[in-house]
Amino acid sequence: MFVLVTLLFLAAVASSIGRERERLDDPSRWSKDKSAVAADPKTIAKLIDDINAAARTNKERMTSIIVINTDVATTTLERQKKETGLTLGDVYVAHSLALATKKKFSAIIALHKSGQSWAQIAKSHNVTLRGSSELIKEMQKP
Fold first, then answer.
1. Within its chain, how far is the Cα of 33 from the centroid?
2. In sequence order, what DSSP letters do the residues of 80-96 get, joined into one string?
3. What distances in angstroms separate CA 25 from CA 7, 9, 16, 121, 124, one per listed residue?
4. What is the value of pTM for the model shown?
5. Neighbours of 68 (CB within 10 A)
6. What are the DSSP calls for 9-37, one per residue?
7. Are 38 and 123 within 8 A, CB to CB?
8. Is the pLDDT of residue 115 over 50?
9. Residue 120 pLDDT > 90, yes or no?
């Protein structure tokens, strides 16, 4: 009986992750667009706050969403979070910037640690945030 319940649970989780992956219209939600307005610091701060709030409510689900969006393993996200002292939301933004700029996560973190805000990093690389907050909220719906 336990095995059957476990298998049903795993199937439901896999189905949920599959649905969430299908909802992704732009895997990185960041675009390299020279004509776009630079990422707004308030928008990025709200995204980080929303991710952190969701992680406090259901860390496993939020981590799964981030894994889907960044293609970075949960263990790697946790290690990076611990090593950098950043929140899960910050780690997500750093990975998103790394994907959009084709730079390594460590290079983005180095820029941030040198005093640049996420918005400054985005602006200096002509990267714009597009709809991440809305997508994260949509993906959190049951």
1. 20
2. HHHHH---HHHHHHHHH
3. 30, 27, 16, 24, 25
4. 0.70
5. 17
6. HHHHHHHHHHHHHHH-SSTTSEEE-TTSP
7. yes
8. yes
9. yes
